[in-house]
């Protein structure tokens, strides 16, 4: 039996079109004509022997075959890009020390370390999970070369790569113990000070004239999630890494202040010799694009020099 080799360009057009919501937008992103993108989709349907998309109102909907192929296509393209990057990248040698804000440690750090090690096996990489202030201090003192941290606007060499919405969080299994207008101050579950998100929570509640009290303090994010899931207090975080026992609260339903987004930045890229850091930053950006909604991720730098 002769196996079919799927066309990589056609796969990329297919994935881009579905992610963008239309093949016209895919054409803009890929710098090709809409007719060329349509021809690639037709080629892919011929190769797979099945229809992949159908019209649904003004948009596109996947067929059963399209849904199955999309999952594989994401993985095929990811592996293709990783292989090309590994072959074309310079043969880097040396070592680099990376710090990652603890919200991203469990879900992001293993993927980043593994992918970078495969692409640059001669580079020794050391990873560290920490709080924002610790990461900034270690970048400033030279104990870290690159750090992924929340952007508080005070780091001069920060390159913002994403913007995540802040939200109020409570237990998933029941309503929070606190109710607006009940006469009791809002109980907060927070990390030990100094903490950027703890400060933001207090400031936004003060501006809204809402009384609050610190009900639970944790030195770690795991303890904060546990306290929030148990209903001991309401927390302010982003949705990333939120465990199943914690739900996002509708600010309007609880008369809580609306919240903005919080920038996520890479620190340390302003150093004169940062070739290794630049390649690691590219991998971090790709890992975030794989895990965050498209609207949260900012356009990647085309080239870091």
UniProtKB/TrEMBL annotation:
Name under which the protein is recorded: DNA-binding transcriptional LysR family regulator
Residue span(s) of domain HTH lysR-type: 6-63
Sample GO molecular function, one term: DNA binding
Assigned protein family: Belongs to the LysR transcriptional regulatory family.
Keywords, comma-separated and alphabetical: DNA-binding, Transcription, Transcription regulation
UniProt keyword Iron present: no
SUPFAM superfamilies linked: Periplasmic binding protein-like II, Winged helix' DNA-binding domain
InterPro entries found in the cross-reference section: LTTR, LysR_HTH_N, LysR_subst-bd, WH-like_DNA-bd_sf, WH_DNA-bd_sf
Signal peptide range in chain numbering: none
One of the Pfam families matching this protein, by short name: HTH_1
Top-level taxonomy: Bacteria, Pseudomonadati, Pseudomonadota, Alphaproteobacteria, Hyphomicrobiales
């Amino acid at each position: 039996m002769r196996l079919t080799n799927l066309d990589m360009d056609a796969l990329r057009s297919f994935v881009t079109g579905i992610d963008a919501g239309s093949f016209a937008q895919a054409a803009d992103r890929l710098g090709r004509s809409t007719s060329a993108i349509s021809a690639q989709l037709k080629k892919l349907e011929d190769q797979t022997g099945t229809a992949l998309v159908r019209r649904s109102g003004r948009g596109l909907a996947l067929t059963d075959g399209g849904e199955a192929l999309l999952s594989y296509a994401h993985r095929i393209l990811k592996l293709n890009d990783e292989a090309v990057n590994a072959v074309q990248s310079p043969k880097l040698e040396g070592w680099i020390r990376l710090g990652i804000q603890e919200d991203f440690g469990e879900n992001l750090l293993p993927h980043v370390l593994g992918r970078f090690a495969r692409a640059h096996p001669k580079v020794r990489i050391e990873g560290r999970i920490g709080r924002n202030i610790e990461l900034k201090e270690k970048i400033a003192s030279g104990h870290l070369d690159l750090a992924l941290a929340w952007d508080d606007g005070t780091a001069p060499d920060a390159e913002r790569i994403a913007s995540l919405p802040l939200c109020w969080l409570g237990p998933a299994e029941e309503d929070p113990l606190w109710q607006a207008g009940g006469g009791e101050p809002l109980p907060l579950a927070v990390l030990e000070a100094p903490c950027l998100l703890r400060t933001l929570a207090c400031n936004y509640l003060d501006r809204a004239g809402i009384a609050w009290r610190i009900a639970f303090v944790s030195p770690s994010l795991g303890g904060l999630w546990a306290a929030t899931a148990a209903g001991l207090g309401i927390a302010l975080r982003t949705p990333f890494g939120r465990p199943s026992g914690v739900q996002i609260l509708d600010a309007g339903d609880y008369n809580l202040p609306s919240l903005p987004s919080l920038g996520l930045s890479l620190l340390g890229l302003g150093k004169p010799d940062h070739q290794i850091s630049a390649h690691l930053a590219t991998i971090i950006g790709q890992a975030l694009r794989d895990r965050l909604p498209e609207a949260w991720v900012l356009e990647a730098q085309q080239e870091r020099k």
